[in-house]
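Example for tutorial group B:
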């Protein structure tokens, strides 16, 4: 299926013959660079909550709100402390830009390759981080955050696809989970940075928090120039000979015939699909539709990113002190990383279904208890 660029390699029955393909340095470097994409996504999700609760940041960009917070009248509830549209726009503009960028990224990834999308993503992340780190106006902040969102749109489109196509079959699943692990590590890194930076002198804490994303962004950008394009993408764009040469290069062997045949077959069948969007709506593809669309959709709709975006702010609004709220955000990030590790470790033991059911039950229980806690607070 070639809906958003890329295609899945069908199993021709030759899998066992190429499954032992070497993990070459190309694959390792590709993974390191690609992991930067996940790290950046996570970092940019986790960083804004801590920054928007820093006093120097609020003094500079939202002085009225800070004043209002400090002169609380008896009528005001804790919950209304952070009631400011521009402040929430700063945080949520990331996802807004990512939403639009991912449509464009999907076509660019298919037509021009995964590398181009990673370069655009890296560039957008780098310029966004610099604009935010050096911001002297609200405009710079919001434009920077929109650029970060563009980075998220491109990188989230290209990196998982790039990893699947680069990886030898035996580590393909693991690499895709590694991308999610990198996201959670990025969130945790942001929470830790936000715990440290408010103590810096001269009020540069928020600048450092926002600007640090420039480091992984530079690695991603520079790395994307040196990464090889995937054989699947080269083939998709019509160059069969070069695709085979690339496959030999990244597998470190000339014996790639069976895997190459499978890639060609998958590419042909992806090209023969005339109406991907109407096909996916057919009853026989209901399971695929649910997996590709509804599960991620409802996973996002649980509101997980309200927690990830606003953890320190949320903890402050329910009465935690400055430090306690930042450390609580670190704990939240830590739990997220550990749970991801647990699921990576146990997915083969309990199966996908088992994990889905366990995850679903945990979500319902925590949503209900979280809701009750906020009501009684
Ligand atoms: O680990 C939680 C994080 O993972 C994602 O769902 C991406 O897969 C993010 O939206 C969320 O913040």
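The residue assignment follows.
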């Amino acid at each position: 299926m070639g809906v958003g660029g890329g295609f899945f390699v069908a199993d021709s029955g030759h899998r066992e013959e190429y499954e032992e393909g070497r993990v070459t340095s190309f694959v390792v470097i590709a993974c390191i660079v690609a992991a930067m994409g996940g790290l950046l996504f996570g970092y940019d999700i986790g960083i804004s909550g801590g920054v928007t609760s820093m006093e120097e940041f609020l003094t500079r960009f939202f002085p009225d709100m800070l004043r209002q917070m400090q002169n609380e009248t008896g009528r005001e509830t804790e919950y209304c402390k952070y009631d400011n549209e521009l402040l929430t726009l700063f945080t949520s503009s990331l996802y807004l830009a990512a939403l639009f960028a991912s449509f464009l990224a999907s076509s660019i990834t298919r037509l021009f390759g995964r590398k181009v999308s990673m370069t655009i993503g890296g560039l957008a992340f780098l310029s966004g981080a610099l604009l935010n780190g050096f911001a002297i106006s609200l405009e710079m902040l919001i434009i920077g955050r929109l650029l970060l969102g563009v980075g998220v749109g491109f990188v989230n489109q290209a990196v998982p696809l790039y990893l699947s196509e680069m990886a030898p079959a035996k580590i393909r699943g693991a690499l895709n989970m590694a991308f999610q692990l990198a996201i959670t590590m990025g969130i945790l890194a942001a929470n830790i940075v936000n715990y440290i930076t408010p103590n810096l002198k001269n009020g540069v804490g928020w600048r450092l928090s926002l600007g640090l994303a420039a480091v992984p962004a530079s690695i991603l950008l520079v790395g994307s120039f040196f990464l090889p394009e995937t054989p699947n993408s080269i083939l998709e764009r019509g160059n069969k000979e070069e695709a085979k040469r690339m496959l030999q290069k990244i597998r470190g062997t000339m014996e790639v015939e069976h895997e190459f045949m499978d890639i060609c077959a998958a590419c042909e069948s992806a090209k023969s699909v005339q109406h991907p969007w109407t096909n996916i709506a057919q009853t026989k593809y209901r399971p695929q539709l649910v997996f590709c669309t509804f599960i991620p959709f409802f996973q996002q709709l649980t509101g997980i990113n309200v927690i990830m975006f606003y953890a320190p702010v949320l903890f402050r609004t329910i009465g935690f002190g400055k430090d306690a709220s930042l450390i609580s955000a670190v704990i939240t990030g830590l739990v997220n990383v550990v749970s991801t590790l647990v699921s990576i470790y146990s997915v083969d033991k309990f199966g996908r279904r088992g994990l889905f059911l366990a995850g679903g039950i945990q979500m319902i229980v925590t949503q209900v208890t979280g809701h009750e806690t906020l009501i009684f607070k």
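Residues 45, 180, 183-184, 304-305, 308, 336 surround beta-D-fructofuranose (CB under 6 Å). Compare this with the pattern of hydrophobic and polar residues in the output above.
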